[in-house]
Amino acid sequence: MLHPLFFSFVKDSRKINTIVSTNGHFLSVGNSEKIVKSGLSKLIISLDGLDHNTYSAYRMNGCVNTVLDGLKNVTTAKEKYSSLLKIEVQFIVNRLNEDQIPQVRKLASKFKASLRLKSMQINEREDIASWIPIKERFSRYKLKNGGYVIKNSLPDRCARLWLSPVITWDGKVLPCCFDKNAEHVMGDLNQESFREIWNGTKYRVFRKSILSGRYMIEICRNCTSGLSGVNC
Question: What is the reported pTM?
Answer without folding.
Answer: 0.82
